[in-house]
Amino acid sequence: MSNKQDNELILAVTANDYEKVKKLKDKKKVKSAHLLSFDQMGHTPISIALKNNQENILEILLDLYKQTKTDINTKDRSGYSVLHVAAGADERLLVRVLQFETINVDVQNEDRNTPLHYFCQKYRSPNIQEPFQLFMKKNVDINAQNKNGETPLHKAIFNNSVRLMLVDMLLKNGANVNIVNSNQESPLHYAVHLGREDLVSVLLKAGANVDIIGGFKDKITPYDLAMSKGNKEMASRIKKYKDLFIWLQENGIEAYKDNFVKEEMFMDELGEINEKILDKMGITATGNRLRILKVTAPYREQFKNKTMPKKESIIFQDDDDDSSTTSTPDINGLRDSLHALKHVSDIVIIKNDDLEYTEKLGAGSSGKVYKGLYNGKEVAIKVLKSMTEAKEIEEFKKEFQIMSAIRSKYVVHFYGAVLEPKLCMVMENCSRGSLYHVMNSDKYDIGWDKTFRFAIEMVKGIECLHKWEPPIFHRDLKSLNLLVNEKWEIKVCDFGLSRFNTGSNLQTLVQMRGTFAYCGPEVYHGQQFSAKSDVYSIAMILWELVTRCINARYERPFSEFKNLQHDFQIIIQTAKKNLRPTIPPTCPPSLVELIKTCWDHEPDKRPNCSETLKRLYEIEAEYKANASLWDKAIVPLPPHSE
């Protein structure tokens, strides 16, 4: 074998010359020694391909490893195996290496770190399920310790992108939460050092020992460490677990520690324990149930003297301050086109490394949504699916344009977009979910005060869009697209179908889009979408709110018409037969009139947002002057049967 042949393969891979690498393979010029040769940095050809995210070249090299029967677990000059390098590469490349039949998932480098250590420390994508399951399928040692005694769980604590998701997955797959490093520090010590209460809670629920004494200099418990850092809230949380564990041990029921922790039955909740709670906790043994009921009896006596509200009270804060799956192609071109967008003064492109993904919230046709952190703030991160079509890129740019333009306390705040390795939109996280989900929960008592507050803030949000220059039409307004934050404030969101009202958008504004139950008849008839079309949608949401208030349970628009099973049937009936949802018979006349005016068949007869808002304030004043009379209109219906 000649040095020239070594250099040929390394030079071709370094230059990302796919055709050259393929030619060397086809001519059978590549031997095992070539695959294991090093460049000047000590990297093998496959390490170079992984570091440069060269997926097509990686496929050729993996085939060559198989054909030449070369050991893929051979380390490079720095002591790293192929899988060590892949652990920090693009997710597709990592998955491909993990799928290689003879890959060793437990191979150690000179510091005794396994590839799983590196995966937990370096992996950045929120799509962790597939690679993690491949590690598990190959029976990885999930509790392997490196030279410093750290396990993959220790390493995951300091992953800046997906630490919570990794920690959760490790714990669910058998990671030992109480293994300590060479300084006797457990993962709980690491989480306290980091100041992350969310991590501390996850580890405590998994059975983290709060009495482990460790540290490089001062040997202290996690509780003392939290106190030394001035984090009293975190220390209080740790103490809550410790007090529970001591009580369980004193009463001989420590075997049920996990049951108590899972349901968060701490000392101040012991008085709530009864037969139903024990069922929920999964405690079935008769003897232990009787014992738990006996030792919690004194707490139940105290509990009886407390007044427990049936439903969570919604407390509003008045504030009138109006301040406010693959890499996409041609990232530079997309970045330039975003900066060239009209009507936008502030373009924010966020680096993916500045985000931390903490929890998956959901998935839809356009992608997945995660809760995360950006600059210390809790955010929602919408990770869009692969966009390879020009039409999809244009849709992304339009939503980006709308969200970048709007700044209002009644519209969900947009922080910016990530362009690579995946397209993401980073926005304000509204922890209580959508207005639809709030109305659909029997946990909340939504009376007239809340109904008016929700309605007024919704209309203010849409009014803001309509008064923008140029005006913006939402085009997909529904209760699912109104978010509720921790302070119970309404935020308009989801501008995927929204458009500026400009000459260039006239054709788009006559296309039938949105959820048909909330669409005005003019949309069905092919007329141009207008601000009054959004007002029709407002009427539907007003109906939902008023019906939820009066009936004390949520009703879906048109649900009383059992023959209408599909959205398209609804819009045909609304457009051709002038069908509308049934307003509750006890609804006050002023609200009936407003709703009917807002969903009038003729757009010109509907009020604009400013007029709707003025009328809402007037009706709210009417309610406040006659609260007892209005409250009589509330006639709760029995809950829906499951």
UniProtKB/TrEMBL annotation:
Top EC group: transferase
UniProt keyword terms in alphabetical order: ANK repeat, ATP-binding, Kinase, Nucleotide-binding, Serine/threonine-protein kinase, Transferase
Residues at which ATP binds: 382
A family per Pfam: PK_Tyr_Ser-Thr
Residue intervals of the SAM domain: 239-302
Classification via PROSITE patterns: ANK_REP_REGION (PS50297), ANK_REPEAT (PS50088), PROTEIN_KINASE_ATP (PS00107), PROTEIN_KINASE_DOM (PS50011), PROTEIN_KINASE_ST (PS00108), SAM_DOMAIN (PS50105)
Keyword ATP-binding: yes
Membrane spanning residue stretches: none
ANK repeats: 148-182, 183-215
GO molecular function, one term: ATP binding
EC number(s) stated in the UniProt entry for this protein: 2.7.11.1
SUPFAM superfamilies reported for this sequence: Ankyrin repeat, Protein kinase-like (PK-like), SAM/Pointed domain
Catalytic activity: L-threonyl-[protein] + ATP = O-phospho-L-threonyl-[protein] + ADP + H(+); L-seryl-[protein] + ATP = O-phospho-L-seryl-[protein] + ADP + H(+)
CDD domains cross-referenced by the UniProt entry: SAM_superfamily (cd09487), STKc_MAP3K-like (cd13999)
Keyword Nucleotide-binding: yes
Domain Protein kinase: start-end pairs: 355-618
Family recorded in the similarity comment: Belongs to the protein kinase superfamily. TKL Ser/Thr protein kinase family.
Name recorded for this polypeptide: non-specific serine/threonine protein kinase
Organism: Tieghemostelium lacteum
Organism placement in taxonomy: Eukaryota, Amoebozoa, Evosea, Eumycetozoa, Dictyostelia
